[in-house]
Amino acid sequence: MDPGGRPGRGVPAEFVPRLFDRFARASSGVATTKAGTGLGLYLVRQLARAGGLDVYYEPNQPNGAVFTLTVPRAAAVSAASAPTRK
């Protein structure tokens, strides 16, 4: 959503493969009217991966975008390997 509560325009289809690249800026849409360095999503993905997470993009039809942060499930601990209390 934009600051006015309206859905954003989304990511131009031709730009999706470069969305998380360093210094990547689309050549159409809001990127042409707003200042930026093209580092935001690159940094988000780098920080997520450094913490064992990841972030993905999906288009949100008819407008906008969805960014999903994935968190891996903790490995199941069997009762045999769990510490016991005395």
Q: Could you explain the architecture of this structure?
A:
- With 86 residues, the protein is of the alpha+beta class.
- Helix content is 13%, strand content 14%.
- It contains one helix and two strands.
- It has a two-stranded antiparallel ribbon with strand order 1-2.
- Strand 1 and strand 2 form a beta hairpin.
- The longest helix has 11 residues.
- The chain is elongated, with a radius of gyration of 19 Å.
Note the total helix count: 1
Helix content: 10-25%
Structural class: alpha+beta
How is the main sheet built? 2 strands, antiparallel
The span between the termini is 54 Å
Query: Strand arrangement, largest sheet?
Result: 1-2
Could you tell me the radius of gyration in angstroms? Answer: 19 Å
Uncertain regions spanning at least 5 consecutive residues: none
Outline of this structure?
The protein is α+β, with helices and mostly antiparallel strands and 86 residues long.
Secondary structure: elements and pairs:
Blueprint: H1 40-50, E1 54-59, E2 65-70
Antiparallel strand pairs: 1-2
Q: Key terms for this structure?
A:
two-stranded antiparallel sheet; 1 helix; 14% strand; 13% helix; elongated; alpha+beta; 2 strands; 86 residues
